[in-house]
Design a protein that fits this description.
single chain, 256 residues, alpha+beta, 4-stranded antiparallel beta sheet, 4 helices
Length: 256
C-alpha cells in the first residue's frame, strides 16, 4: 500500500530533507584528493546530531537480517555503485567519482538523497556519466505527476540513460519514504510506460538512478554491502526525496 501523507507529515519530511541536503552539500565540499572516506563519515554523523537529527543509515539492518550498516553515510568510489563503507584506508584520489548517499531522521520522518562528485581532472566520458545520471534523476522527477503510472518514472530514467550509451543498474530501486526509510512502492529505474499504481498527490518517493559506464550488472563484495559493477567500470548515483504535486513534484531534499 502506498501511503498518502498529510501536509503535517510532509512538513516534517521537508525539514528532514533540508537537513539531509545541507549536510550532503557540506560533505561534498570535503571530497578532495588525499581525504580518507572515514573523515566524511565522522563529519556527517557529528553534523547530523548538531542539527538535532539522527543518522538514518547507521545500524540499518541488511535484508538478510544478519548484519547492520556500520556507518552514517555511504561513500562509493568509481566501480562501487552503492553502499560503500567509509574507511581510513579508502582514500580519495584525482579522477575518482565519489558517490555520497545520505539520510537523516527528524521528528520521526526521513530524508534521503544522493549525489556523485567528480574529483578533477576527469575525462570526458566520466563527466558525461555524471551529467547524464543527474539529468536522468530530473527526468524521473518530471514524470512523477498525479494521474501518471509508477512505471512512467522508471521509463523516463531508462530511456534517457540508454540514449547516451550508459547502463541503468537494475538491482537497486527507488522507493516510497516517510516514517520509514523504505516504504511501498519499489521504483525500478527501468521498464515500459503505463504500468503500476496511479500516482496521486501527497505520495512521497525517493527516486535514485544508478548508472554504469559499461555493463549494468553488479555484484556485492564480501562485506555484504558494497555493490560494484561486474566489469569494474565506474558508476554514478543521484537521488532526491520528492512529494507528488499537481503541476510538478516538490523536491524535499533541498536547502532553501
Amino acid at each position: 500500500m502506498i501511503i498518502i501523507k498529510s501536509e503535517d507529515e510532509i512538513e516534517k519530511m521537508r525539514e528532514a530533507g533540508r537537513i539531509t541536503a545541507l549536510i550532503l552539500q557540506e560533505v561534498a565540499r570535503m571530497v578532495k584528493p588525499g581525504v580518507p572516506t572515514s573523515r566524511l563519515n565522522e563529519y556527517a554523523e557529528r553534523r547530523t546530531r548538531e542539527l538535532g537529527a539522527i543518522p538514518a543509515f547507521k545500524n540499518y539492518p541488511h535484508p538478510s537480517g544478519l548484519i547492520r550498516y556500520p556507518a552514517s553515510i555511504c561513500v562509493s568510489i568509481n566501480e562501487e555503485v552503492v553502499h560503500g563503507i567509509p574507511s581510513r584506508n579508502k582514500v580519495i584520489r584525482e579522477g575518482d567519482l565519489v558517490s555520497l548517499d545520505f539520510g537523516v531522521i527528524k521528528d520521526g520522518y526521513y530524508g534521503d538523497s544522493a549525489l556523485t562528485v567528480g574529483v578533477e581532472p576527469l575525462d570526458d566520458r566520466r563527466r558525461e556519466l555524471l551529467n547524464v545520471t543527474k539529468e536522468a534523476l530530473y527526468r524521473g522527477i518530471e514524470a512523477a505527476k498525479p494521474g501518471a503510472r509508477l512505471s512512467d518514472i522508471s521509463n523516463a530514467v531508462q530511456t534517457y540513460v540508454e540514449s547516451h550509451g550508459f547502463g541503468i543498474v537494475r538491482d537497486f530501486t527507488g522507493h516510497g519514504i516517510g516514517s520509514s526509510l523504505h516504504e511501498e512502492p519499489q521504483i525500478p529505474n527501468f521498464g515500459p510506460k503505463g504500468r503500476g499504481p496511479v500516482l496521486r498527490e501527497r505520495m512521497t518517493f525517493a527516486i535514485e538512478p544508478m548508472v554504469a559506464m559499461g555493463d549494468w550488472r553488479v555484484m556485492v563484495k564480501s562485506d555484504g554491502w558494497t555493490a560494484v559493477t561486474v566489469d569494474g567500470l565506474p558508476s554514478a548515483h543521484f537521488e532526491h526525496t520528492i512529494v507528488v504535486r499537481e503541476g510538478e513534484a516538490e523536491i524535499l531534499t533541498k536547502v532553501e
